[in-house]
Each structure stands twice: as structure tokens, then as C-alpha cells.
Amino acid sequence: MAINADAVLIAVQRFGLGAGPGELAAVARDPRGWAVAGATRAPDAPPGEATDAQEAVALFLERRETVGRQARERTQMEGGGMGAPRSEPPPRPRNAAERGFTAPGEVVERDLLARVSLATTTQAPLAERLVLHWSDHFTASTASGFVGYFAGAFERDAIRTHLQGRFADMLTAAVLHPAMLFYLDNNNSVGPGSPQGQRSRGRRGLNENLGREVLELHTLGVDGGYTQDDVIAMAKVLTGWSVDIAPVARDPQRIGFRPEVHEPGPKTVLGKTYPQDGPEQAMAVLRDLARHPSTARHAARRLVRHMIGHGQPALEARMAEVFRRTDGDLAAVHRALVADADAWGPPRKVRPPIELVFAAARLLGRPPPAPPPVRALRAMGQPFWQAPVPKGWPDGDEAWAAPDALKTRLDWSGEVAGRMAAGTDARALLTAAFGPAASAETRRTIERAADARQALTLLLMSPEFQRR
Amino acid sequence: MIHPFARRAVLAGLGTLFAWAHMPRLADAAGRDPRLLVVILRGGLDGLGLIQPIGDPDYAALRPQDAAGGTRLDEMFALNAAMPNLLAMLRAREALALHAVATQYRGRSHFDGQDVLETALPSVTTGVRSGWLNRALEAMPRGARLPAPKGLAVAPVVPAIMQGRAPVETWQPQTFRYSDDDLIARLLDLYEARDPKLAESLRAGAALDHLMQEVPPGAPRERVPGRPDFVTEAAAAARIMARPDGPRIAAMGFNGWDTHAQQGTNRGVLYTRLGALDDALGALRSGLGPVWGDTVVAVITEFGRTARLNGTNGTDHGTATAALLLGGPVRGGRVLADWPGLAVGSLHEGRDLRPTMDLRAVLAGVLVEHLGLPERAIADTFPNERALRPMTGLIGRA
User: What is the pLDDT of residues A50-73, one digit of tens each?
Assistant: First the structure.
């Protein structure tokens, strides 16, 4: 019984987003079966209208146009003179109407709210965890400005669509997506031998950023056996994949492959020469990278460390083997991971803030009315889709338990509880969240709490809720 | 419900158990215990508006508004009038200004410019990248039994300059209402029983909050309308760093230096920002008071701005700019520059102040002379095709 209770808790915490109302009882019948079934499920779609990549380009262009026009108007108003300024700059706009355009942050906030809402009720919570993982594996961070317009489309079209499909398809969709092309500067990368490179006489050139990250982060891993020459060749292979942001587009679609900046000719990556020219070249190289043994090892390692924890080399090796054997069938890898006995060890990782926000909303049956998730995630150190580096968020088992961050979690939990405690019974929620697996100390702490708000705060901060 | 034992425990903890899970002293046998805070001004500081080259015959034509109004420092330079605290530190020889400095970056993108400033890597962004301050942390000399020093970033996430292998903690101003002590005590009891790692972390976090809630010394600050508040974070950084067991290496950033329009040096946006920066420098000076003699504050930015004002009385992205070193150990009271001149022919690409001093050499000089970084570690901290020579004579009171 006790063993089963622990497995139930691991199932909902590690292979879900924590228990929603009534969920624990359903899981308790067969926790492993529940998790294995969830491992291959496709994710549900976040509610509401999502911005697609074409709309994102339109928002980007509209913003640039408006900012330019406003600057010109100000210049005319000032007479363009060198005299003392006649007026201070206009006050900071508070919303899209005052600003005259939609800011990237507004798009991201809407996307986040849709995902919190989805996490609250989805019947495929493990798929949402896997979406978080693969979105981190292919980080396209909105920390660099305009990526925010494209991030929702990226997560849907590159990650969700291919979540249970082939790694090669996810890789291709992610690397060639406008969000990634902007984030890792492929948009500015010009083949020196391309028509545009020749015309620019050396003023525009190759940007290695995306080429490097594809090898180092997306596929082979830093120890995966590539050289600087491979990085340069990869960057040349990728030239041409871009978003046309010229005021007057050559192609009304604007997104895709532009031959005039593609470095012509065959390229050699990892010792293999690719004779294709044009868009097919990147496709071919990415297909081969996806089935490279280093990629299997690197992708499996990151998956295990994110989903389960560090220090499990045998589990990592088994997952790499499944990845390799199935030619990167992600559903097969996910299923094998959840079915592996080593994946069911005691909780070790402190939940990242985004999972904490999801899990709290799920347990409470609705997203807390406040604090706004955008603000909560920033305060807890994980602003949404805004990882500081292409490598993604820190993933150590205790990475999210630093003093200031943990104390901020407590303060956040207190605010959530302040708004949600009325009408909830923390003791009932304790049973709903952990069942018989709750420790005696956690149970006693909540039962003896001074009031309903304190009880709920302590429940949200309990080790059972914080770790998975 | 009364919870006396736990409450007493937590209060005692606030007094004695505060610790950054590390003992970061860099102290050497001579008893020095140096600290370094790097302040990044994001957006590209107009160095010509901060340290004004009034002695340059071409300055008045380029910046008619600024030709008078600053406070004269020497034959060549004046300090923007918005900075009384900095002026006092310059006069007390605790501040050193450097002019016509730049990193190796010669483009005009904020993103790339800050990347180069913070990583100090030869090209923009590599995959598993690290910041120069983190690499310096790793290379820092330490006593036989002292673990690796830990850095502090006053920011929601670790900024590029502090990313890397050496551990870094972050602190940012409080977003939510503080939890009460009773709640903290109960949760600590639970963690003590079930999860000692979370207990240790929560105790340190709560103690840090208490430190931050104490009323800072001195009179309450008056807020100047329209002036951004840089003081809160500066005062916080100072308080954490001034702790005997606080971090020795820290970084923070102030935004908003991208003054494309109406910068009106002696009024306008830049004036307001410089005033806010001056408040922050003053808060650092007083907050770090007891350890000021061991502290260097470096104020740097990704690039400067065009020499000429543009059509909207602002300046566009440029190249060389000014930087500041403050602190007790600094050989201050002067402006250090190999002045390139502002004649059209002297300007970089006909528009920007031309760089004559490598900012990396300045920073490397601080690391070597102040923190005692071994010179051989400079090649890793500031990798460069030709070995970078750290500047000398920046640190050490004459």
C-alpha cells in the first residue's frame, strides 16, 4: 500500500503537473499504467487564438513602421533644430492603443495565460511537461526582443506538432522556424559567395550563431565530435533560411528560403559532402544530424536530467539506445523513459517556477486571479520563454532552490493563498494532492496551521509539492 | 496558535545563521579582502555627455547645449552637472574616469555589443558561453581551505557577465508582500524535519529579506519626479556586499541609456538618468562605507554614441565612451584618456569618438591589481589574438 502510494505521488508529480481535483484516485488504480499511457499522448491545444508566424511578421512590421513614423513626427514637431529641447519625450505608453502597436511582451503574456489555463484542466499533463522540456531543448528566447511575436507559433508549430513524432521533424521545424532564425541571427547571415554577399563587398557576411547551436545544443552536444570547420560549414548550409523584413517584400510570404543570400556550392559537414544546392541542403544535413549517435546520447541525456534528475548514467544510456534504435521516435523514447524502473526513484528535483505555477492552478482547480503569472515567473527567476542563453534554463536538481528564489516562492504562495483560501479546505486539498503519501510532518503542519490562508500556503510550499 | 519555540529559532537564525552557503573571502595574508561590483549601463552611455571634453575646440559645435554647465575637472574635461556625488568622489580621489574607451566590438547592435561587453569573447555568442566575471571568479586565488567564491547578480536571472561554472546567486527587489515570521518558522520546522536542503536555503533567504527590510542609514531619500529609481537596487547590493560573509564579486545593471531623442545633456533624458545614476553611486558609497576601502565599483557600457547630436536632439549608437572606477583602492581624482580629438577627420567613421583605450585592458588591470588575479589567468578571462596587457596604475593609493 505504502509503496503504491509513493508511486501514485511520483506519477502525478513527475509524470504530470501535480494532481488536479479527483485525479489522484484515478491514478491510484494503476500509476505506472497511467503514466505510460500519458507518455505517448499528443498535447491538447492551448485555448484561444494563437498568433501564427505570418501574423507575427505582420506585427513585427507594424511595430517598426509605427515607431519610425512616431520618430519622424517628433522630429517635425521639434523643427529638427539643435536648440534646447522644447519638450520632454512623451510619457511611457501603458497599452497597445497608446503605443500604436502590439508589443512582443503582450503576445507572450497572452500565450502564457492560455498555457496556464490549459495546464489547469488538461487530461494530458505529461505531454505539457514534455512540451516544456523540448521547448527548452530548442530554446528560442524572447529575451531578444522580437522573438516574442513568434514564440507562440514556434512552440505550437515546432514543438507541440512534433512532440510524439520524429526528432528529425522537430529539429527541422525548430531550426528553420522564424523564432529561431531571429533569435540566433540566421536572419542576418549572408553567404559571402551569394549574390547579396558579393554585392555587399564584405560588409555583410556569415553569422555562425545558429550553425554552432544546432551542433552544440540541438543535436550532437558540446562533446559530440564536431570542429570549428563543421560550425562554419553548418552556418553556410543554413544561409538563405530567413524572414524577409524589407519594407517591400520580394515574396509576399516573407518566410522561407531566399536564394540571394544562400552560399552556393557543396558543403562538407562531419566529413560528408552535401551536393544539394538551395533549401534541400539544410534539410539533408539536419536529417543526418538527427540520426547521429552523438545526438541520441545528447538528447537522451538532457531528457533524463530534465524529467528525472542528474546522476543516472545507466538510464541515460538506455534512453540513448532507444532513441538510436527507433531513429528518434519521440513517443517511443518517452514511453521507454516512463516505463523504466529507474525513472521512479524518490523525488529529487525542485520544480521549476513554471511547473509550480501550473501545478498550483491545477490543484486549486482554476488559475489564481493574482498575482499575474508573468509577474510571478519573473519574480521567481524564470520569466516565461525568456531563458538568458540558447542553452535554456539551468537544470540542476537544486537549481531553483537558491535562497532568494525559495523565499520568493513562499511570498508568492502566500499571495496565492490569500486569494484562494476562502472556500478551500487545505486538509482536503492535502489528501487530493498527495493522498496517503503525505508525510506525517506535512500533515501535522497543515492541520495545526493558524488559519486557512496559512494552511494553504504551507501546502503549496511543502516538500511534497516543491519536489518531483 | 502560539509557536514560541520555532519563532525563537527563526529569530536567532536571523542573527547568527545568515550565510551565503559559502565563505567567499578572498583575503590574502596581508589582510586585504577585496570586493568588486560591476555596474552595466545598458543601452549605450553617451560618454561625451557624462565626461564633457570642453577643452576640445570642436566640442562646442557638436554639443552646443553642453559647452557650459558642467563642473570643470581639469583643462580638458568637465563633469555633467547632474552628478554631485560623483564629483565629491572625484575630489576625494576615490573616483577615476576613463575616456575614449571601448570594447573590441565595432558594430552598432545593443544585443551584440552587450554580448561582447559581458562575455569578452572574440566573437558574438558561442553556445555554452560564459561571462568574463564568472571566469575571473573561477580563476580567483583562494586560501587552502576556502571553497570557490560565489558571485551575486542583482537581477531576476543571472546576466551574461556572470554566467559560467562558478556558482552565482541572484537577488532582486521584493515583488510580493513579505511572509510573516510565524509562517516562516512553521515552514522551517517542516523543512528541518523533511528536507534539510530547503531548510538551509529558506533560512538564508529569510535572513536576507530581514536585512533588506531594515531601514537604511541616513535620512529618507526624496524621490525626484521623473527620475528613475536606481537607488533601491544599489543600496541592496551595497548592503549584501558589506556583510562580513557577503559575496565579494557582484554585478548589476541599469537600463535606459539609449538616448536617441531629447537627451538634452543638461536637461532632458540623459541628465535625468545621470542624476539617477549619481543617486545610486551615492547609495553605494554610503552603503559600502565600512568596506569602501576594499571595494572597487566599475561602471561600464556596451558602446558610446555619435559625437554630433541628431535631428531629434539625441545621439545614435556610436563607439568609444567613458567608464568609471570608484572605491577606496582606486587611484582617483583624474580623467585618464589618450584623447583622440573631435575634429571630423579624427572621428571613427566620421561620426563617433574614436577608441584609444581598450576597456578589457582596464578591467583586466582591476582584476590583477585589485583582486590579485594571476596574470596568466587573463588569457582565459579576456581571450584575445594578441595577449591582452592589463593596464597598470589604476589601483593603489599613491
Answer: 889 999 999 999 998 998 888 788
Whether A408 and B175 lie within 8 Å, measured CB to CB? yes
Which contacts of A200-206 are long-range, i.e. CB under 8 A and separated by 24 or more positions? A206/A232, A206/A235, A206/A236, A206/A239, A206/A263
What integer pLDDT is reported at residue B149 of this predicted model?
A: 67
Q: What is the mean pLDDT of chain A?
A: 92
What's phi and psi for B305, nearest 5 deg? -130, 170
In the three-class reduction of DSSP (H, G, I as helix; E, B as strand; rest coil), residue B170 is classed as strand
CA A420 to chain centre: 28
Q: Which three cell numbers stand for residue B241?
A: 556586499
Q: How far apart are CA A238 and CA A251, in angstroms?
A: 19
Instruction: Tell me the pLDDT tens digit for each residue of A315-354.
Output: 999 999 999 999 999 999 999 999 999 999 999 899 999 9
Q: Are A232 and A258 in contact (CB under 8 A)?
A: no
CB contacts, 8 Å: A82 with chain B: 64, 309, 313
End-to-end CA distance of chain B: 62
At A190, list the grid cell: 549572408
Check residues B235 and B213 and name the one with the higher pLDDT.
B235
User: Is B114 near chain A, with CB under 8 Å?
Assistant: no
Question: For residue B94, what are the CA distances in angstroms to B53, B80, B87, B293?
Answer: 21, 17, 10, 9
CB contact under 8 A, B124 and A378: no
- Interface A-B, measured as beta-carbon pairs within 8 A, has a size of 176
Measured torsion, CA atoms of residues A356, A360, A362, A367, in degrees rounded to the nearest 10: -110
A chain contacts of residue B177, beta-carbon cutoff 8 Å: 411, 414-415
Can you tell me the distance from the alpha carbon of A347 to that of A369, in angstroms, rounded to the nearest whole number?
A: 29
Are A268 and A233 within 8 A, CB to CB? yes
Residue B150 has pLDDT above 90, yes or no: no
Nearest Cα to Cα of residue B353 among B47, B108, B96, B76: B47
Three-class DSSP category at A155: helix
Comparing CA positions, the residue from A450, A419, A431 lying closest to residue A442 is A431
ipTM confidence: 0.93
Q: Is the dihedral of CA B121, B124, B125, B126 positive or negative?
A: negative
**Taking a C-beta distance cutoff of 8 angstroms, is the pair A252, A243 a contact?**
no
- Helix ranges (DSSP H) in A394-450: 403-420, 426-434, 440-447
pTM value is 0.86
Q: Are A426 and A459 in contact (CB under 8 A)?
A: yes
